[in-house]
Every structure is written in C-alpha cells, then in structure tokens.
Amino acid sequence: MPTGYYKRPNVAIRLLKRYKIVENDCWEFTGAKDSHGYGRIGYKNKVFSAHRLSFYLFKHRLFKGDCVLHKCDNPRCINPEHLFLGTQKENMLDCKTKRRHTWGQKSSLAKLSNDDIESIKYLVSLNKYSQYDLAFLFKITQSNISKIINGVSRKIG
Fold first, then answer.
1. What's the CATH number where 97 sits?
2. Same domain, yes or no, for 44 and 118?
3. What pLDDT was estimated at residue 78?
4. pLDDT tens digit string along 13-28?
5. Dihedral pair phi/psi, residue 128, rounded to 5°
6. What is the DSSP letter of 5?
7. Quick one: 120 and 71 in the same domain?
8. How far is residue 94's CA from residue 3's CA, in Å, rounded to a whole number?
9. Do the Cβ atoms of 15 and 50 come closer than 8 Å?
10. CA 66 vs CA 56, 71, 74, 82, 86: distances in Å
11. CA 80 to CA 82: how far, in whole Å?
C-alpha cells in the first residue's frame, strides 16, 4: 500500500461514530450541522443529511422527493426509531403543527405586517386606489396586492 494512502471507512461506521445518546433516547449527531441544526456528513464527494442517511441505512430506501421526518422534533437526532417517511406536504404540516416554522409577519421573509395587510384591505374598500398604486405604496408587486385582496395570501385571524 502506497504511503499516505487512506481508505475511507464505511459510511455507516462513520455515521455511528458521531452520535451521543441524550434525553428521549435521541441519538444526537455530533458532527457538522447545517444552519437549521440538521447533521451533515460527507461521503463520496457528496454531503448528506445525517438523519436521511440513517433512515436509508437502517429502515428504507429513499427516492427523490421523499422527506424524512422526526417524531422527536430534534433535527440532530439520527435514531432510526425516531424517523419516519413522509411527503413534502406532510413535512410542512408537521412543521406547522409543532410550531417550528415562522408564518406570516413573523417570517424573516415577510415584507408586510398584519397592520399593513389590514391597511391594504381598507384602502381597497375605499375604491380610490388601484392595485398598482397600492403596490407602489407598500413596495410589493400588483400580483401580491391581488392575492391579499382575494384572500389567497396572508389571511389574518
């Protein structure tokens, strides 16, 4: 074997060397993590989510579009017993149910407050301003104004 040759260990072994058991029997991944707290592990020049890799290795093959959700709501957990397969829609519903995601004006991407939405609805009721005028005033697109008026976007209450 040439000097400096290093054979990468099996990815399952690498994954299982990087966790500690914490409360609720969670296996918290101790390696690198992303900005949302999910574990990340490299293998064959690609980076994988640790919980998805754990699910794949110990439970079931994954296909494009499959989501791996946490029963324990711990993004660092890789315990296969805490993971289950779901769709993107189920993932978003799980996220909303567990209050892990910011919605409406609490979102960092929100451009309007709830008061802004109410103001837009009030100004529309006066029949003095076009959707384009309101879009200019609130620094959003006319399409967004239309969605607010029709109740498609940012329903309040």
1. 3.90.75
2. no
3. 95
4. 888 899 999 988 999 9
5. -105, -20
6. -
7. no
8. 51
9. yes
10. 11, 16, 19, 16, 6
11. 5
CA dihedral 77, 82, 87, 90 (to 10 degrees): -100
**57 and 122 both lie in a single domain:** no
pTM over 0.90: no
If asked whether residues 95 and 118 sit together in one domain, one would say no
Shared domain for 118 and 140, answered yes or no, is yes
Nearest to 24 by CA among 83, 82, 85, 94: 82
Number of domains in the chain: 2
Closest to 112 measured CA to CA, from 153, 66, 84, 53: 153
pLDDT tens-place string over residues 43-87: 778 888 999 999 999 998 888 889 999 999 899 999 999 999 998
- b/e sequence 41-54, b meaning 16+ C-beta within 10 Å: beeeeeebbbbbbb
Q: Could you tell me how many residues make up the chain?
A: 157
Query: Range of 30's domain?
Result: 11-101
Q: Are residues 83 and 109 in the same domain?
A: no
On whether residue 2 sits in a domain, the answer given is no
Per DSSP bridges, beta strands 19-21 and 27-29 are antiparallel
